[in-house]
Design brief:
80 residues; 0% strand; globular
């Protein structure tokens, strides 16, 4: 889960993890759900860690169109 307050348009860090606007948070949540459905991401549970950290996912979301995301792409992406 993204731990962030909602950023404003004037926030110089808007678009960065922890400073996502409401629309960006919704888009990021949808992106993660698409990865889950494609078996490319496993969300954290009470007993296991997530398969990828959120900075890596956010960078993948920014760098690549969703249709190009693969397991190899996620492994190759380093956090921004």
């Amino acid at each position: 889960m993204i731990m962030a307050s909602v950023a404003t348009a004037s926030d110089s860090l808007a678009g960065h993890l922890g400073h996502l606007t409401s629309a960006q948070q919704e888009s990021f949540a949808a992106f993660k759900e698409n990865l889950v459905q494609a078996n490319l991401y496993t969300a954290a549970t009470g007993t296991t860690k997530a398969s990828h950290d959120e900075p890596t996912l956010l960078c993948a979301n920014l760098r690549y169109p969703s249709s190009y995301i693969t397991n190899a792409t996620l492994k190759a992406v380093s956090p921004c």
